[in-house]
Amino acid sequence: MASKMILCRCLMVILGIIIQTYCPVSSRPLARRDADNSTSSLRAIFRDWMTLHGKSYPLASDEYEMRFQIFKENVNYIEALNAKPGRSYKLGINEFTDLTHNEFTAIYASGLKSVDITKPKRFPASASEKRFRHESKTASPLPNRVSWKTNGAVTAAKNQGNCGSCWVFSAVAAVEALNFIKTGKLKTLSEQEFMDCAVPFNVDPCTGYDLRKVFDAITKVGIANETDYPYTAVRGNCKLPLPVAATIDGYDDSYPRNDEIALQEYVATRPVSVSINGAAEGFQHYKSGVFSSGDCHGRVETNHAVLLIGYGTDPDTGVDYWKIKNSWGLGWGMAGIGMIQRGGCGPQGHLGIASEGLYPI
């Protein structure tokens, strides 16, 4: 009987973590530990969290104790921020809760070079951009809300794993969306193909790369389905040729930088690959709501690529948002989807979201 009660208690703890991981911002806050036994109860949660996320730290080892202390500090941070009034977003436990901010940044927010938003890049307007600008001037007003996920153009969020390969996930997600817009068919395409076949031998694709190179390669040879070339999070031998699942005609990176209104016009017509500051405080633990950054100065380091899939206004808080698809798995955000505040942070936007972007054509 006692063993059954212990099993039931453990299952309830796991269920509590799962509920916190997937519930929206209006749900109950992260379960608080008993005030008289907080450390021991948190250790039980940590052990169940390890099982849930496939983590393996030998009990009583130095590594176990170190990870537990990091986990504890992160949970305390999450609870403290969620308790503050007036926040438009919530944080939660996820697979990154045992990582320090520096560790997380080194792996998951280092896939792109920084961008100096005070000196934005400028490109000559392409024919497609000129055509778009002409059409947008005569088009009807922008819709108040756009969601390419609701429209069916966005595949489920994927997980780049312990590899700084956000660049390829953002680019491939943009191609998946464009292919749906053109053909009406949603296909899950391969990131691994470019990890193995399109990156120079002397470059480690897990330390970051230029997503323009992905668009260049797809323009030349197309892209395979993910089922034909699954992701491994490490570089392997190139397995081409394989059946081509989708193609593009090129890409455009010439829309105005540091202009959220211009970005909104483009996102109304297609998803856009953008770079953001994935190392912003708290973003590692983001769970739901509209995330905002207090760093709105003249320079933002963008170090992570995501796909911008829509915009709107949060009905609960009245805060305008951008909607992104991330590549940190289904446990981050709302099944891998996040919302970032739109407007109110200078021309570059929150997390530098308007500082640099491009899209396939």
TrEMBL record:
Residues 1-27 form the signal peptide. SMART domains: Inhibitor_I29, Pept_C1. The keyword Glycosyltransferase does not apply. GO terms for molecular function: cysteine-type peptidase activity. This is Uncharacterized protein. InterPro entries: Papain-like_cys_pep_sf (IPR038765), Pept_cys_AS (IPR000169), Pept_his_AS (IPR025660), Peptidase_C1A (IPR013128), Peptidase_C1A_C (IPR000668), Peptidase_C1A_papain-like (IPR039417), Prot_inhib_I29 (IPR013201). Residues 142-361 form the Peptidase C1A papain C-terminal domain. One of its GO terms (biological process) is proteolysis. Belongs to the peptidase C1 family. Keywords: Disulfide bond, Signal. Residues 46-104 form the Cathepsin propeptide inhibitor domain.
